[in-house]
């Protein structure tokens, strides 16, 4: 890139070299100052510095006039040490040039004394630290100021706005942290401003549009935000605009079409949206245009064909669509590099390009939806790098062309067939195709590049490039079917097959089914077991990513990161400035939204059923709602949370640790991780702390009591079968309020609070803890905790795999999966926490299968691991379906019994006059005695207010007793999501 960084310096040198040395008048004081400078900077002078020698012995470094010493030019003189502040006493210094040395220390504020004479200050490329002295704003004649490539910190001093004659300002490659001062708009004479490679923040000041002489503006590699100000269109003389690698948003202003002299425009690696303005066709001097790694949409404007001087055109990694304009042939012999990879282009490569672009050396079109045959008219006589991967090209590679090609990437075009032979070809990637090399290409290195390397193939050169070729090299005999590819998905469009590349379809389908059916079912059969199936599927997916790469590659594809339905049930993709993590952001955000939506649906069903029951309306509708899973919020979130927490947390961690992360993914990951953690924290606080305030010795406010089951007179076989069903699938215990002896008696003002707490736990939170037996109400926190930690580990493993270390990631992911499954199984065996035996047995079985599957992966037996994982997934689906069917049957039976009891005795048939199912309420008598004692213990009231309070309490106690009696009949009409543990059997 051309700039005028040193124009001022050489102008000053030329000016002062013309000064006659014979008329020089130097004082002894100036000589002493120069001598002190020699010592402070360790200048290697061999002769003493005197009045007679100071202006003669060093003619290239010290220039004098009849006023005295006017120029100190010690550029690249190997100076070390520090700049002495005493030099500020030189009365006539006009140019101070110290760049290209190793000076340390700070910039002396005393140099502000040169305010009446200094025109050039150049100390770039040193090791200076500290801040920019605001005192330098006094240099009213300064035209050039460079402090680039140092270690300066602090802010850009607003005082420098007084340097009204300044033409060049270069503070790049430091660690400055301020915003761009609005005051600098007064520097109307400036033409070169270099502030790149700092830590500047804030926005681009609109007021800079007043700097109408701007020629070269570079603010890249900072932390700037906001949009590109349309006011900058006033820079009619602009030649170079560099603003890449920031956080700019918004669109490209069409007003910039006024930059008719611009030749370099860099806006890549931002968050720009919108389309490429067709108005930019006025940039007829354009040489280098880089807009890659943004979120641009639309098509390639045909009017850009007027850029007759274009050398480089790069729009990689956007969301551009449409076809490739054939009229770009007008770029002709000037263009050398075209990069349009990772977009949504369709159609074919225009034949006219191959004929007209005779100087084109690099063409990257990978990861699009281009198709068709590669015509033999695509001559490209100078092409050296050609990437065609992950498209839909068909036919054979054209022979007799591309005579200069060195690197060819054609992988993952499944319809490419035949042999290829190019005399200068050094490396080729043809995995995932039916291409084979001819015998004449025996010296060609065959590789299978991961997409992360493919995106960077334009920089494949030197030693680093050779190492990449060796790292991803594969062995392929001449004209033999190629190896399987580490298949890639289009990073900006939907996956071609709808499933994760490289993962066996069977395990993908079964694990997807597990995720879907476990979002709504009753019981905890999905809570501890589903994460085990998810762990097995993820470990197998990582293993396939490694195996597909032939053991040499360490990453698979950028697309598959959370681009699978088990981890991302809605296949959501949220733009986060990097296509690699789009699906991870979707899994983190949309999974949480799906969790909330399911909870709301369950709450609505429960609320509707309760309303119909209370008003005795629509018995048919009430019966229908009664067989549906339902629960009130916030407990309604418990079952779907147990299913989605592991992939949700994993996606958040992937957003934080992936090499493709940026500020947007980090903010998203942290915010969503906090939201995912909020629900278990709330449940732990409510159940394990608040609900223990009333119990003696910190006991839980509810207790779990055994259920006494009815022995029905049926045929022997039916009796045996029903007994087995009840033993396996019915809860052993149910939760109910503790007796007065088991809880601390509240004060009068606390009575209603305690009652409300009991009602809230049973009505709104039982779905969280109701699946567990006595003294195990806290086990939900154990299962969620294991899923959360395991999700974080596996999320990091998937990010590492995509970043380039799949084979190492699968090792520790499988090991961690074994550990977590073993811990969960051991706790289940030790504590026996589940109220339903089937749920306990299923969790143990699936934990064992998950351990076996992961162990087989570590042993290299992927096929066996796949079979075990499929068995686990099928078993889980069958178990969930069985529990759901049993729940429906049980609810229908309960409703029949309730309707029968509610009929008058005269209308009941003798066959239906059977005993009700009644739980063993061990504390019923004690509760009755307690209510009576409560009534008798109330002393005679002494005032009207006391009478009212005691009357309210009596009414409350009577209502509570009446409600207990009513619950024996009507309780089954309300069905929490954690059925069956919360039901009367």
UniProtKB/TrEMBL annotation:
Keywords attached to this entry: Membrane, Signal, Transmembrane, Transmembrane helix
Entry-linked InterPro entries: LRR_dom_sf (IPR032675), RLP_Defense (IPR053038)
Organism superkingdom: Eukaryota
Signal peptide extent: 1-24
Transmembrane segments: 580-608, 620-643, 663-691, 778-800, 812-833, 840-861, 867-890
Identification of the protein by name: GP46-like surface antigen, putative
């Amino acid at each position: 890139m051309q700039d005028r960084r040193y124009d001022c310096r050489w102008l000053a040198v030329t000016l002062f070299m013309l000064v006659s040395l014979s008329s020089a008048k130097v004082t002894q004081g100036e000589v002493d100052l120069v001598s002190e400078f020699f010592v402070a900077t360790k200048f290697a002078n061999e002769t003493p510095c005197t009045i007679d020698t100071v202006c003669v012995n060093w003619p290239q470094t010290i220039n004098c006039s009849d006023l005295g010493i006017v120029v100190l030019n010690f550029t690249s003189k190997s100076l070390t040490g520090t700049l002495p502040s005493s030099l500020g006493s030189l009365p006539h210094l006009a140019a101070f040039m110290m760049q290209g040395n190793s000076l340390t220390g700070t910039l002396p504020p005393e140099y502000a004394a040169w305010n009446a004479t200094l025109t050039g200050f150049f100390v770039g490329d040193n090791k200076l630290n500290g801040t920019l002295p605001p005192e330098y704003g006094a240099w009213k004649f300064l035209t050039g100021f460079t402090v680039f490539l140092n270690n300066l910190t602090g802010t850009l001093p607003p005082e420098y706005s007084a340097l009204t004659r300044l033409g060049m300002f270069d503070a790049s490659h430091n660690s400055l942290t301020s915003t761009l001062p609005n005051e600098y708009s007064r520097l109307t004479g400036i033409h070169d401003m270099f502030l790149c490679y700092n830590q500047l923040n804030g926005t681009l000041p609109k007021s800079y549009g007043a700097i109408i002489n701007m020629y070269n503006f570079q603010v890249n590699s900072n932390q700037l935000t906001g949009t590109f100000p349309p006011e900058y269109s006033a820079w009619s003389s602009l030649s170079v605009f560099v603003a890449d690698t920031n956080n700019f948003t918004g669109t490209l202003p069409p007003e910039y079409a006024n930059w008719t002299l611009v030749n370099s425009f860099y806006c890549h690696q931002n968050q720009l949206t919108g389309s490429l303005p067709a108005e930019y066709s006025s940039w007829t001097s354009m040489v280098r245009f880089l807009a890659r790694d943004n979120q641009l949409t639309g098509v390639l404007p045909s009017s850009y064909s007027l850029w007759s001087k274009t050398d480089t055109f790069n729009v990689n990694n956007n969301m551009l669509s449409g076809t490739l304009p054939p009229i770009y042939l007008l770029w002709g012999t000037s263009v050398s590099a075209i990069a349009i990879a990772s977009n949504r282009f369709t159609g074919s490569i225009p034949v006219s390009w191959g004929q007209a672009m005779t100087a084109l050396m690099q063409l990257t079109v990978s990861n699009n939806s281009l198709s068709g045959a590669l015509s033999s008219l695509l001559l490209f006589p100078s092409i050296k790098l050609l990437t065609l991967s992950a498209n839909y090209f068909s036919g054979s590679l054209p022979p007799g062309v591309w005579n200069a090609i060195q690197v060819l990437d054609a992988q993952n075009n499944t319809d490419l067939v035949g042999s290829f032979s190019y005399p200068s070809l050094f490396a080729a990637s043809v995995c995932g195709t039916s291409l084979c090399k001819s015998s004449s290409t025996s010296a060609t290195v065959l590789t299978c590049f991961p997409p992360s390397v493919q995106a960077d193939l334009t920089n494949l050169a030197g030693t680093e490039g050779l190492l990449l070729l060796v790292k991803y090299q594969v062995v392929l005999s001449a004209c033999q079917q190629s190896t399987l590819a580490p298949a890639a998905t289009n990073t900006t469009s939907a996956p071609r097959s709808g499933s994760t590349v490289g993962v066996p379809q069977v395990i993908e389908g079964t694990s997807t089914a597990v995720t879907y059916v476990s979002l709504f079912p009753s019981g905890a059969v999905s809570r501890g077991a589903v994460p085990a199936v998810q762990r097995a599927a993820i470990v197998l997916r990582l293993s396939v990513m490694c195996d597909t790469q032939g053991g040499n590659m360490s990453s698979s594809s950028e697309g598959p990161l959370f681009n699978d339905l088990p981890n991302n049930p809605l296949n959501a993709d949220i733009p986060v400035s990097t296509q690699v993590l789009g699906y991870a952001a979707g899994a983190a955000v949309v999974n949480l939204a799906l969790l909330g939506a399911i909870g709301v649906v369950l709450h609505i069903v429960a609320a509707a059923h309760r309303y119909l029951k209370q008003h005795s309306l629509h018995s048919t509708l009430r019966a229908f709602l009664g067989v549906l899973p339902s629960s009130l919020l916030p407990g309604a979130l418990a079952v779907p949370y147990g299913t989605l927490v592991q992939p949700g947390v994993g996606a958040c961690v992937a957003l934080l640790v992936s090499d493709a992360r940026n500020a947007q993914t980090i903010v998203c990951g942290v915010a969503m991780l906090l939201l995912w953690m909020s629900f278990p924290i709330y449940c732990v606080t409510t159940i394990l702390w608040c609900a223990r305030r009333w119990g003696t010795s910190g006991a839980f406010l509810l207790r779990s009591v055994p259920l006494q089951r009815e022995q029905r007179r049926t045929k022997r076989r039916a009796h045996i079968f029903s007994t087995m069903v009840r033993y396996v699938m019915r809860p052993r215990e149910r939760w109910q309020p503790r007796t007065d002896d088991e809880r601390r008696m509240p004060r009068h003002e606390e009575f209603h609070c305690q009652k409300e707490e009991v009602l809230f736990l049973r009505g709104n939170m039982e779905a969280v803890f109701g699946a567990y037996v006595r003294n195990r109400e806290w086990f939900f926190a154990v299962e969620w905790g294991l899923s959360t930690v395991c999700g974080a580990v596996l999320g990091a493993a998937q990010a590492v795999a995509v970043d380039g270390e799949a084979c190492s990631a699968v090792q520790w992911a499988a090991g961690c999966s074994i550990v977590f499954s073993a811990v969960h199984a051991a706790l289940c065996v030790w504590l026996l926490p589940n109220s339903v035996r089937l749920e306990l047995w299923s969790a143990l079985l699936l934990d064992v299968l998950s351990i076996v599957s992961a162990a087989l992966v570590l042993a290299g037996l992927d096929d066996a691991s796949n079979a075990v994982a499929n068995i686990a997934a099928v078993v889980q689906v069958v178990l969930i379906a069985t529990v759901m069917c049993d729940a429906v049957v049980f609810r229908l039976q309960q409703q029949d019994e309730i309707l029968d009891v509610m009929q008058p005795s005269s209308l009941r048939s003798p066959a239906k006059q059977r005993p009700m199912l009644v739980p063993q309420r061990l504390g019923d008598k004690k509760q009755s005695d307690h209510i009576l004692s409560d009534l008798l213990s109330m002393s005679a009231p002494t005032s009207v207010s006391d009478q009212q309070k005691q009357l309210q309490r009596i009414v409350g106690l009577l209502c509570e007793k009446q409600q207990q009696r009513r619950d024996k009949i009507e309780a089954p009409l309300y069905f929490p999501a954690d059925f069956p543990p919360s039901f009367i059997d």
